[in-house]
Amino acid sequence: MNAAVDALLEARATRRWLTALPDAPADMAGAYAIQDAVARRLGPVVAWKVGAASPEAEPFRAPLNAATVFEGVERLPAAMFQVIGVEAEIAYRMARDLPPRSTPYTREEVLDAVASVHPAFEIVDTRFAGYGSQDRLSHMADQTNHGALVVGPAIADWRALDPLAERIALDVDGETKIEVVGGNSGGDAVRLLVWMANEGARSFGGLHAGEVVTTGSPIGSVFVQPGSRSVARYGTMGSIALTVD
């Protein structure tokens, strides 16, 4: 595992992208161990990403560090990224800690611990020489392809939000690239949040007050060029804009 951790950290520092991951993980437990070790060396974990391949599938996650989590910005430097995959998401900020415990947290207990809900952009990226060029577990070990998270303003009356009914459209340089209702491959975003509270964040002592959990992209990834301006328009959550140049 140490060879994989060192290789990922070196790729981040030098921008010499990897053609393969040494000591690649054989299972999800191994991928998470590499994720966690990299995250601990990168600095404070202030957020998480979570998703799932289907509404019934076991979710997957990655811890996100302070250096790549941004609040309310509308511009990021393209030099941060190798590729720029824009994803419009729904993110939850925690109001209080949910430490690991022997009995699972219920849906209502988790929602009662939420402070606010936000529109968000995740930029997906890779430390490998080619997005999608490796096996799934290697990409999971690489922070599940995380590049940056931009958290938009809190919405009003977030309790009324139904993620499965929320309309989301993404415009790039004025052209609508995709528009969906619901669309999250993992199904209900709250299901993913509850899994994070009960399982996903255990290795870091559970979820903590102030942390943000972004719950996957209903629109998928839209890859853009440096200099482009992306605008995500939500049915009830307003809009957010981001230029990467």
Care to give the gist of this entry?
The protein has 245 residues and is an alpha+beta fold. It has a single domain, classed as Fumarylacetoacetate hydrolase, domain 2.
Structure description:
- This protein is of the alpha+beta class.
- It has one domain (2-244): Fumarylacetoacetate hydrolase, domain 2 (Alpha-Beta Complex).
- Helices cover 21% and strands 31% of the residues.
- It has five helices and 13 strands.
- It has helices at 2-14, 28-42, 107-112, 136-141, 189-200; strands spanning 45-51, 60-65, 69-71, 75-76, 85-94, 114-124, 146-151, 167-172, 175-181, 212-214, 222-223, 228-234, 239-244.
- A hairpin with a 2-residue loop joins strand 8 and strand 9 (175-181).
- The longest helix has 15 residues, at 28-42.
